[in-house]
Amino acid sequence: MPRSFLPKKNSSLSFGRLCRPVTTILPKTPQLESRCNRPLQMEFEHQLNALIYFHLEEHVSGRHLIQTLQEDDFARNNIAPPAGIGKSAFFEAMNNRGLEQFLFVYQELQKKAANLLPQRFPELGEMVAIDGSLIDAVLSMHWADYRDGAKKAKAHIGFDVNRAIPRKIFLTDGNGGERPFVSQILEPGQTGLMDRGYQCHKSFDCWQEEEKDFICRIKANTVKTCLENYPVSEGGLVFHDAKVLLGQPGIKQTKKSLRLVGYLIEGKEYWIATTRFDLTAEQIAQAYKLRWEIENFFGWWKRHLRVYHLISRSQHGLMIQILSGLITYLLLAIYCHEEFGEKVSIKRVRELRNKIVNETRVAEKEPEGYYDRDRPPQNLHASP
User: Which of 382, 311, 346 is CA-nearest to residue 69?
Assistant: First the structure.
């Protein structure tokens, strides 16, 4: 049932505005149930809001967040459960509950953002940059295999280049292969943008059989069997455009033909294998350059939302942490688009943080139970 009440003391309209897109998703979210006779100390809604706040405010650890939920008036009154939250209850929730719910909210919010945000390169079609990102782990995280003396996990992410937002996400240990996730990330009609680490002639054939397009850089010394040459402009950056088979004949050679584009930038050669025969060679070069969008996303996401500061050491908890970081980024993308018509930027994030602080300071001066008729009531946790 929808709930409604007057604004809480120390509330923030701006934090409510940021979280508004999830309010229509929460009623459809699978119910989080207690696994024993005791009631839940932290409902999913509180866990979600707490982790959004964690990333938004750049907390550095789970203990940092818990202390804020206990001591900061705004966080205690508007984000934490009504009865408060202790360390054991918080980490029990992180390590054992909520993964299904976080995944559902992320998937629904991603669809909402994809429908709302404009396409920046519609002439290139649906472009999805694909890459893996290593996450430093601790030695006690036995599941995060990497090498002797070091533990790492790896996030495999597809990034919607046209709308500058993440799409699908998978988590493995640090040694997890990246190529198998291409088929799971890409959908028919989308084009995957990938670096040389994804070059595999067997995979190239497989992706074509699945009707999934790709633009992938390959090693310059790859054996190429030319089937048909296409004209290139003199003096342009493109020096090669042809239909080819890749690999030594009889030894890991592609069974299906590909298009191979070669171009030169600042004296450096790039060789791009692709299934996109409908684009010009120059557009292929432009599309591959857009692959760097995912690198920029990883860097910004890790630096400004503290996504890889470990809250939990279990695979379950780390996946929740990553999903909540992706949810926070999607909320920021929707917020920046609707409020300013812009992409996410640290300038707007800092501005939002300052608004939340200023609004809670104003609320502190209002008497208990004060209600401003000119300011609409809000409920940061309730579904509309």
Answer: 311
